[in-house]
Design goal:
With 754 residues, the protein is an alpha+beta fold. It is 38% helix and 24% strand. A hairpin with a 2-residue loop joins strand 5 and strand 6. Helix 9 crosses helix 10, helix 15 runs antiparallel to helix 16 and helix 25 runs antiparallel to helix 26.
Amino acid sequence: MTTDYNELQQKLQYQERLNYVTNIINAANNCDEILLKLKDEILLLFEAVNITIYGVDPLKNELYSRHMIGPDIKEIRVPVSPASLAGYAAYSLESINIHDVYDEMELKKINHNLKFDVRWDKQSGFRTKQVLASPIRFENRLFGVIQLINTKDDQPFHERDLKNVQEISRVLGIAFRNQSRVLNTRFNYLISHNLISMGELKKAMTIARDKKKDIETILMKELKVKKRDIGAALAHFYGCRFMEYNERHIIPKELCKGINLTYLKRMFWVPVGMSEDKIIILIDNPNDLKTAEIKSLIKAKDYEFRVALREDILKYIQSLDREEEDKGASISDILGELDIKEEASDNEIGEGDLDENTGAIVRLVNQIIIDAYNKGASDIHIEPNKSRKSVDIRIRTDGVCAKYQEVPYSHSSALVSRIKIMSNLDISEKRLPQDGKIKFLFKGRPIELRVATLPTVGGEDVVMRVLASSEPMPVEALNLSERNYNEFKRIISVPYGIFLVVGPTGSGKTTTLHSAMGYINTPDRKIWTAEDPVEITQYGLRQVEVKPKINFDFARAMRSFLRADPDVIMVGEMRDHETASTGIEASLTGHLVMSTLHTNSAPETITRLIDMNIDPFNFADALLGVLAQRLVRTLCKSCKEPYRPSREEFDNLVSEYGTEYFPELGIELSDKLILYKAKGCDICNETGYRGRTGLHELLAGTDEIKEIVQKRSTVEEIRKVAIQNGMRTLYQDGIAKILQGITDITQVRRVCIV
């Protein structure tokens, strides 16, 4: 009798606690209050050791849970799939009661693919055994999962526990449904992720209404909400991608042909790209009825609408309508002014009425240069095409070309002639290549362009390299490995000898040399440089620009420097025997000489100079070091995607780096090893890459190296000794930067020979 009474008493107490928990759920102000504050009460109810209450992120098809760690909220995420126990409960919409999560047979009885993710136990040292999990749902809508872990008496959860957790899940489902009804704004995500409260949102709405501003602007300025979080809220609400303004993103001109830009500004939308037969439209409200009007204005097989802040949409429209400083004309305005007409026949191609002095042509060339400079381009390509009756204008950014504009072919002659006039070239000569320079002033900053014209079957091509004057890069910013960094500083601090930086055109040799000179540029050193042209200026350097047309070349400049009391001499390039031999003689007479060569690797540089009839004994005595380098594209920091490499991928990296040398990196395959791969976002124009960094191969002039140089050894023999002395090849340096998460194997193989 007493036993029955005790059991009844326990049931009543259990029911009271269950009712208490239910009341707390119904009284909660928001979902986060439920997720963070209810856990202790439920643990007490079920006499469990641990509990996790997950919400659901339908956009990513993931479950998430938050935990208070000190003053901060930390988030855990798992996929809605059989890859985890909570994920399976959400995936199947069924409750599970597992006696031992490490019993694979028990898991397979529930689902053949069901797995327990042991990482959490390994990281925390906690031993999971019993798990009780139930989906939180209302009707057919999933809101999350409640998961209880381990009982205090180490016994399986009772059937009573399973029924009660299902009841709590039902109550939670109703509460979450009610909360989602209350938060019926496009900023639900901010509230549900504890970034702002409902009260703060209402306050922001009031301020926005009073100041007649967007709520997004008030949230960012008044409440300091990050732009990316607002973007995530908008993407979650509208079910599409969010896109920020990126000044490097170029909108194809043909997308906006015939559309009034004033209309776009008033309606807050703009076409920003094209992918196969799909047009990408940026809009402030993808649910707006104006999307139907957009489809009637721009014809395409498919459309992708992306949401953006109004201020960013206006920036994109302004990029189409950007005013030139002096004339106030945009590219689209200039092209409109040129009165584009289709040629009637092939005989009329290139014979337009416009000439190189027409105001619109002058402004067009200026605007092309300004836009390329603003977008950080290194080169501008003007490419006439007779068959398509057009002139393609492409710009190279981060080593990759992209289409910028298209001009009618009828104006190609005037366009090229204008560039020739600016470069002091012969406009009547169209059959031979020509080289020249343009000095351009923009916003008080000098921009110098190296110009090359080449006759092609489509007309005269023009390539302009942008040589914007800039400050030298600090040595620390070259991204040298620790060994290379220490050796580099040691070599350039030596008072005499020769140091060479080698690599193909555009590999950053001049930048590296100016970094070296910037490091040693002190009042007690006299530094002379001979360059073609002077791309980077430094206070304290006496910089001379060679002029081969008047027989003032590198060799002559160097002979002059030797009579001008130098401590350091930098020569832009060792192109011939005379320049190289003069440089070595200077280095043997107490001067530090720096220069560049166009060779593929550091060991090849030595054999190249010896092949130029340089005395190997003098060269060996003078040699301080050779730095070979390449520029490799880096992964976009905004979107690069982390992943755990497989054993096969890791072993391949070890093998390609060199099994005997790999331990020096101090990296092993483990759960902590994270690599990154390209994904693509609006900031990097969907490429997955943004910016470039250097790969380096530094051969130091050690005694062993000097000895084999004197013996005229082969490239392979020099490379072998250099590696034994600590040199690592360009490819090895590339693999090290892959493991650092800077780039990936695809980009390294683009610029290096395995």
